[in-house]
Amino acid sequence: MKIMIRRTSAGLSAYVPKKDLEEPIIKVEKEDLWGGAVTLKNGWRIALPDLPRDTPLPITVEAKRIFDKD
């Protein structure tokens, strides 16, 4: 799915256009963001692609939602 990552005054935010959903990113797996998973405030986990650490924001990327097996 395509998501847009941007930096706001409150921190990082993710927007999913297909769902018209914008949520704050509350947890990042990797300090430099890229190549790891992020957790949105609504509980969604999203795997981000590997990109250079200095990739400018905002940016739209192809990402994958992670579904936890319970």
Automatic annotation (TrEMBL):
<protein>
    <submittedName>
        <fullName>Putative nitrogen fixation protein NifT</fullName>
    </submittedName>
</protein>
<dbReference type="Pfam" id="PF06988">
    <property type="entry name" value="NifT"/>
</dbReference>
<dbReference type="InterPro" id="IPR009727">
    <property type="entry name" value="NifT"/>
</dbReference>
<keyword id="KW-0614">Plasmid</keyword>
<dbReference type="GO" id="GO:0009399">
    <property type="term" value="P:nitrogen fixation"/>
</dbReference>
<dbReference type="InterPro" id="IPR024044">
    <property type="entry name" value="NifT/FixU_barrel-like_dom_sf"/>
</dbReference>
